[in-house]
Specification:
The protein is α+β, with helices and mostly antiparallel strands. The chain folds into two domains: 256 residues, Thrombin, subunit H (Beta Barrel), CATH 2.40.10; 82 residues, Pdz3 Domain. The chain contains eight helices and 19 strands. The strands form three sheets. Strands 8-9-10-13-12-11 form a six-stranded antiparallel barrel. The N and C termini lie far apart (43 Å).
């Protein structure tokens, strides 16, 4: 099912509404009512929910163009030019997006739903949740989208993802929540509660808000999970609610102890364990002597059998602690020691 598209100007949101209404049986029936292995949940989003989503969210929708200096560490994997969607949540011009779009940002421009381009700046990034905040430079008040209580979201809930392409086109994808569960990633990242949504929104517009049938924002689109059936990983806004005040005031959550960071990329291999598949060139492990294919056996003497266990044992320590990993390499065991770092001192996460 192709997403519904409309021109970037506010007046053209009506085109989204009309197109969605015209194909409502396809969008809301064929997609949202598709068979799922998820537990039963509320009724799928009704056809009228798609126009409602567009009308309520589109005025607060932004497209972010981000430029990052080539020497910054994140460019090795994310590049120097990025595009993502965001949504205004405060009349003063604060907007919520996915953190990696803004990471190391030097220059940020925001395209509004009515076609105007406004300078913006990086306010803060919460590396633990993966969410980021930008702020428009022009004075408000700006239109905002309401943030809902995402803790109530359950499998089967009808949703819509509203993003903006680089040419200013508003793109609406009708979907449903397939799963609500923890998410563990290769890059020392874990969410205790995440949404998995299908069909996926195009990954070009990561940071696009996920909304419920009432047009309230319940999450921020992060990744397209490529394995069949394709889904979007969505970060629930509940993770933002607990960090909001500090992010806006300080650019990071200083009241929370930073997670010690090694800069390892790992993968769980069935029947084997946690295997190192890469090393961040900006992380402390870059020169420690790890090799691709090393199997992590122990962390400071404690067994490691899964990524979750690896992170739990690592994050029980503090920044600056020495971490010794016992790895199996070929037919031998090797002990590699590295001093855990603070990622907030490596990457630029605020303009302060």
């Amino acid at each position: 099912m192709s997403p519904v598209r409309a021109g970037g100007r506010l007046a053209s949101v009506a085109t989204v509404v009309a197109a969605a209404a015209a194909c409502g049986a396809l969008v809301a029936g064929a997609v949202l009512a598709a068979p799922s292995q998820s537990a039963p949940g509320p009724a799928p989003l009704a056809p009228s929910g798609i126009p409602s989503v567009a009308r309520r969210v589109a005025p607060a929708l932004l497209g972010l163009r981000v430029l990052v200096p080539r020497e910054r560490p994140s460019t090795a994997t994310l590049g120097t030019e990025r595009w993502g969607s965001a949504v205004l949540f405060d009349p003063a011009g604060y907007a919520l997006t996915v953190g990696y779009v803004l990471l190391d940002a030097e220059r940020v421009e925001a395209r509004l739903a009515d076609g105007r381009v406004v300078p913006a700046r990086l306010v803060g990034i919460d590396l633990e949740s993966g969410l980021g905040v930008a702020k428009l430079a022009w004075p408000g008040p700006w239109p905002v989208a309401p943030l809902a209580d995402s803790a109530r979201v359950a499998p089967g809930d009808g949703t819509g993802t509203v993003g903006m392409s680089e040419d200013g086109t508003v793109v609406v994808t009708a979907s449903r929540v397939e799963r609500v569960q923890p998410f563990t990633a290769a890059w020392e990242y874990r969410l205790e509660r995440a949404f998995f949504v299908a069909p996926p929104h195009d990954a070009t517009w990561s940071g696009a808000p996920l909304v419920n049938a009432a047009g309230e924002v319940i999450g921020v689109t992060s990744l397209r999970m490529g394995y069949p059936p394709a889904q979007n990983l969505v970060i629930p806004v509940e993770h933002f609610a607990v960090a909001r005040d500090e992010l806006l005031a300080r650019g990071r959550v200083e009241s929370r102890r930073p997670r010690p960071w090694l800069g390892l990329l790992t993968q769980l291999v069935e029947g084997a364990g946690v295997v190192i598949v890469g090393v961040s060139p900006a992380g402390p492990s870059a020169t420690a002597g790890f090799r691709r294919g090393d199997l992590i056996v122990k962390l400071n003497g404690e067994n490691v059998g899964s990524q979750e266990e690896f992170y739990r044992r690592l994050w029980a320590h503090a920044v600056g602690d020495e971490i010794t990993l016992l790895v199996r390499r070929a037919q031998r065991f090797e002990a590699v020691t590295v001093r855990a770092a603070d990622r907030y001192r490596v990457y630029r996460t605020t303009d302060r």
